[in-house]
Amino acid sequence: MKRLPILLIFVRAPFLGTVKTRLARGIGQVRAREFYAKTSTDIIKKISQDRIWRTILCVTPDDAALQCRFWKEAKDRIPQGHGNLGERMERALLRFPNQPVIIVGSDIPEISQKIIKEAFSLAKRSDLVFGPSSDGGYWLVGARIGSLTRGLFKNVRWSTEHALADTLKNTGIKRTVFVNELDDIDDVTDLINWSN
Questions:
Q1: 124 near 100, Cβ under 8 Å?
Q2: Closest Cα partner for 104 from 74, 160, 142?
């Protein structure tokens, strides 16, 4: 039986004061938590309905992965574990060394099933796929098979305009392609730009 491609959605349990901290500086912790809880729920519903891939939530903190308090419709969950973002993403991708696998964030309102399908299709014909964002980072990263991501996130300056460029330096001779540029919502400026 053919194994399905894996879509990993990185989520943070929406506890007050722990999500969207940069956004919270502009709109307050309660509104930031409400925004994240709604956005992440909407995204999970929007992109996990397709039977072409298997959707798994990668949850932090780890103990929240074992509970179904949030995102009840998503049954498959794994903990992100310790370490910086790159270490957590590499560990998640390497759990599926022989399968197509993609990671997306949970704060990209414009994400769609169509773009995810395109990303899996592109990954089949290349080695790595990225979804760039206008701030120099990326909202999607994936591979034809998970084992191709070993070492991909070393020395990346996370949450800076260098994140994508730093990651691309680690691709070596791997064939790399890109899908649509989309933006996540990190702060009030992002929220205003997306709302307009």
A1: yes
A2: 142
Measured CA to CA, the distance from residue 148 to residue 90 in angstroms comes to 10
pTM, two decimal places? 0.94
Which domains can be identified in the chain, with CATH numbers? Answer: 6-195 (3.90.550.10)
What is the SS3 assignment for the chain?
A: CCCCCEEEEEEECCCCCCCCHHHHHHHCHHHHHHHHHHHHHHHHHHHCCCCCCEEEEEEECHHHHCCCCCCCCCCCEEECCCCCHHHHHHHHHHCCCCCCEEEECCCCCCCCHHHHHHHHHHHHHCCEEEEECCCCCEEEEEECCHHHHCCCCCCCCCCCCCHHHHHHHCCCCCCEEECCCCCCCCCHHHHHHHHC
pLDDT in tens, the chain (196 residues): 568 999 999 999 999 999 999 999 999 999 999 999 999 999 999 999 878 999 999 999 988 887 767 887 778 999 999 999 999 999 999 999 999 999 999 999 999 999 999 999 999 999 999 999 999 999 999 999 999 999 999 999 999 999 999 999 999 999 999 999 999 888 898 888 888 7
